[in-house]
């Protein structure tokens, strides 16, 4: 399974994202982290951020859900 396939599977997952991964999530978000800092997030939310990062790396603009 590729990262993209995993993202497709988890895109709408309502399961809460574990707080123990907060440092990794903060690094992933970079400058966008302040808008997520005080929000409880789901796996689907994390996938949205990851999709945006992947699109930026590939030179594309990801659609915002």
Characterise this structure.
The protein has 65 residues and is an all-alpha fold. It has one domain (3-57). It is built from three helices and no strands. The protein has helices spanning 3-10, 22-29, 43-57.
What descriptors fit this protein?
mainly alpha, 65 residues, 3 helices, 0% strand
Q: How many distinct helices?
A: 3
Distance between the termini: 24 Å
- Main sheet record: none
Broad shape: globular
Question: C-alpha Rg, in Å?
Answer: 12 Å
Range of helix content: 40-55%
Beta-strand proportion: under 5%
Number of domain modules: 1
The low-confidence parts are none
Counting DSSP E segments of at least 2 residues, the number of strands comes to: 0
Question: Order of helices and strands, N to C?
Answer: HHH
What number is the mean pLDDT?
85
Can you summarize this structure?
With 65 residues, this protein is an all-alpha fold. The protein is 48% helix and 0% strand. The termini are far apart.
Q: What is the fold's blueprint, element by element?
A:
Blueprint (H helix, E strand, L loop, with lengths): L2 H8 L11 H8 L13 H15 L8
